[in-house]
Structure formats: structure tokens, C-alpha cells
Amino acid sequence: MTPTSPSRGWPRPHDVRVLEPRRLDPLAGRLRAALAARPGGTAGAAAVPALALCRVFRPGHDLFVEDGGELSAAWELLAGDRDPAGAARRPHALLGVRALSYAAGLARACHLAGDTDRRVVAVVRAGVLRSDAGRAALAELEHAPGPGVVVLALSPGPVAPGGLFDLGHDGAGRTGSGGFGSALFGMVREARGLLGFAGEPTAVPGVVVDGRRVREVEAALRRARDAGRTVVVRCPVEAGGRGVPGALALPVPSPAPSTAGASWAAVFDAELAAVGAERPELIAVCSGDERAPGIGLFSRTFPERTVTLSGSESHVAGCAAGLAGGQLHPVVPVGDGFVDRVAAPPGVTFVVGGDAEVVPGVRWAEPRDAARLRELLGEAAGVGDAVTVVRVPDGGVPDEVAAVAREGGVDVLCAGTGRDVLIVAVGAGAGWGLGVAAAGRELGLSVTVVDPRWVSPVPESLVGLAGRHGVVVVVGGGDALRAALAGGGLGGGPVPAVSEGDVAGGARAFALRLAGRVASLSGGLRA
């Protein structure tokens, strides 16, 4: 007797692999009806693909990505409520072409880890492959290292198999005299007619299979799995479940030189290579954005850990997410505004150049010198549960500024003897802040200068420091940082931004203004 899920009467996913072939189609009918009866009724068409995938691949071991959620609903029904791995089968919210991008990243992660026993399967709606972004992602999959990715493209009926080969009812894969192999690799791959592309054809081979019968879908998937390259299996499905399956995503199981006179971009290139030498899980991703900091030294030092992508920003973000899902940590240099425009995935570090503004909701670091750049890159590479961003400014790198202490992750660059003024100097503003502190001392002011290093989220220790000083000044860091420190000190109210004019006017002139502000406070300074 075939084992079944507790109190459900369903064979478990791993038991479907050994189920007698004659029982497959009746089981698919039962599963389709049960899924169609669920709220929304859109998962019924997932029954046949779900069973075929269970028979060819290994849920919980092989890696699955999809662009919705109905297919995973079928697997969860088979698994039953007591299956300890059931939670691992719940889908991530990957939509459309991002599922393909994520799969490309997973494939590269498996290849870099030397994991040749695990396959990557992307389950998408066939319409995804017709878009420009879908074709670009498919081209990326074609060049993915290792055995390639199996793409199962589901489309609504009518069921009309045909294309590179046509599976007969016995699942033999008849293609004339040459069989599947010769049909797949011995002819021109014109996928426009096969997959319904409106644009240029793709070099990725494909097959159309009758999506009503588990054995035929199984046979096509098995041949695609063994093809040794990326293959698309288009599977028209009947709309008996009032919808086409969406997507399934299973998480991956756990598998510096002198900077004198150097530009920030050159120092970043060198420091990234240095951090990469210490962290073998670090992967550099070239997004093709000409405005992004370069990774030339890293790519020459670690060519096998360098990924060059083309295509849309969403494709780059999706592929990076797949690499992160494979227990790697991608570092992606991008241009200004990239992080604001895409759904940035956790476990990825973006390096932004120029005058990029702090994006709320991500962990944002601002290095003040070359040593801090390496330090912050290393810290960012250790964050797996959030998006991290390290900003690399334009221009030259200032001299190193050492901290005299660290309080709650905040570097204290200059500790005043009292609590007159706190200068929060973000990034390269540290040198100017120290100049103001020196001028303030000549005027009898006690000035403390700190560098938060991570400006988002705002460190709690920094908020506490602001509350213990009479006047708070913020150099850089964006509106969110100033808002978080508003009301700190006797001055109260919003914290004004230090303008370019203030910096150009010199440290002493600004210190004089601070002295006037401190003197005007009523009630004296806080004890």
C-alpha cells in the first residue's frame, strides 16, 4: 500500500515517485477537484504538473522557483499538515520574470558551491516568456553554468502538443528516426513559433507536451532534466481548475593598498577584492550600469565568482536574489536610484555611487575613509536577512580618520569634555566635523564628533547621544537621520542640514555660529 499523508488520504510527494503509473491520472483528477474546491479555485490546473514534478525531481532537495503560488498549494495538500518540511514548501512572493532571474542566480550558486546533485526548476506562466524581460532572462539561463535549468512554462488550453518533439500516449517521445536527442540538438532552434514569442527567437531548445497526462509531462521533464542544458517544456493545461498554476519557490537548504590620492572607485575595487579573499561566499555581480563602481580587480582575481548580467534592473535584482538563496552573498554595484526602483532582495549588498539618497527600509552604510569601506563591506556581507547598501562617493578618498572609541556601533572621532555640541559627521564629512571641533575648542566649546557608519536604521546609541547634548548638528545622512535626531539637546525642534555653503565657509565660521547658538540657549545646558 502506498503511504499517505496523515488523515488526508493523499500520497506524500516522495511517495508519488514510486506510485504505479496506472494510478497517476486518477490521482490527478482527485487532486484537481480538491484544489478547485479551495477558495479562489485557481489551483486546480496545477494537479498534473505537480505530480509530474514530484516523480522527476526531489522536493526538499532540488530547487524550485515559480511566479505565483498555486503549484505549491498542490504540494502542501499532498504533504499534509504534519509534514515537518511543509513550511519549507511555502512560496516566496516571486512574480513574473523574477522567477526566471531567481532561478538563474540559484543555478550559479549551485555551480559555485560544486553542488552537482541538485537541479533548479523554474515554473512560470508561458506569457512570461513572451516579454522582452522574459527573453532576456531566458538568454541568461541559456548561459547558466552547470547542467542548466528546467523551465516548465504553463499555459491555458486548448491542449495541442507539438514542436520539437511530440510525446505519444505511451510517453516514448517519438520524433521520427532520431528520437528526442537528435530532435533537440540536431535542428535549428526557432522558438518563436514554439513558445509564441513576438520578438527575436531564442537559442534555448524547447518542447510542447500534452498537459493532461502525468506520464507525458513526466517523460518530457525527465528528458529535459537529462539534456545537460537549459530546456523549456511548454505544458498547456486544461482550465478545469479555473486557472493556470502560478509559482512555487522552495528556499535553498543550507549548503588593501595605499589610498593616497586614489579615487573612491579605485579604492572600492581594491577593497572588494580584499574582502572577497576573506569571504569565499562573496560574489560580485556586474549589472552593466556604466555609472556603477567597477569590479575589475575582483573579476581578475576571482573570475569564477564574478557574474556579468545584462537586461533589466528587475532581472539583475532577481538573479542576485537567487544567488543569495543559494547561500552566497552577492555584491552588486549599481547606479544612483537603482535600489529605489527595484524590489531589493534580502541577503544582497548593493554598492551605489555618486550622490545617491538614503532609501528607507534598507540598511545603509556610509564609509568615511578606505579602512571603513573595507570594514563596512565586510559587515554588509555578513547580513543575510536584510538588504544592505554601501555608498561609494565620487572624487578622491580623504585621509584615514581613526576612532577614539565606539559606542553602540557608532564611532566616536572626538570626545568633548562637556555636552555643548554633538556633530554627527556622516561619511566623508568626518574631516570637516573634526575641523569644527578644533575651532570650537579655541572658542571654549566642548564638541563631540561621531560617525554613525550605518545611517539607516538610525542607531539607538546615536539617538541617546543626541539627547545628552545641547546642540546637534548633522553633516550628510539624509532627512531620515535628521528626523530621528530631532528634539535632541536643549535646542529641540528639527535638526537643520549643514549646507554646502556652511562647509565652504570654513570650520571656524561655523564654530562661531555654534558658539552663538549655545550662548543663546535659555536654562543652561543639560547636566
TrEMBL record:
Alphabetical list of PANTHER family matching this protein: 1-D-DEOXYXYLULOSE 5-PHOSPHATE SYNTHASE-RELATED, 1-DEOXY-D-XYLULOSE-5-PHOSPHATE SYNTHASE, CHLOROPLASTIC
Q: Which SUPFAM superfamilies match?
A: Thiamin diphosphate-binding fold (THDP-binding), TK C-terminal domain-like
Under the subunit heading, UniProt states: Homodimer.
Keyword list, A-Z: Magnesium, Thiamine pyrophosphate, Transferase
**Which source organism?**
Streptomyces xanthii
Recorded GO MF terms? 1-deoxy-D-xylulose-5-phosphate synthase activity; magnesium ion binding
One GO biological process term: isopentenyl diphosphate biosynthetic process, methylerythritol 4-phosphate pathway
Entry cofactors = Mg(2+)
Is Magnesium among this UniProt entry's keywords? yes
Transketolase C-terminal domain location is 417-476
Q: Under what name is this protein listed?
A: Transketolase C-terminal domain-containing protein
Quick one: a GO cellular component term?
A: cytosol
Against Pfam families, the record matches this protein to:
Transketolase_C
Q: Which InterPro entries does the record match to this protein?
A: Dxylulose-5-P_synthase (IPR005477), THDP-binding (IPR029061), Transketo_C/PFOR_II (IPR009014), Transketolase_C (IPR033248)
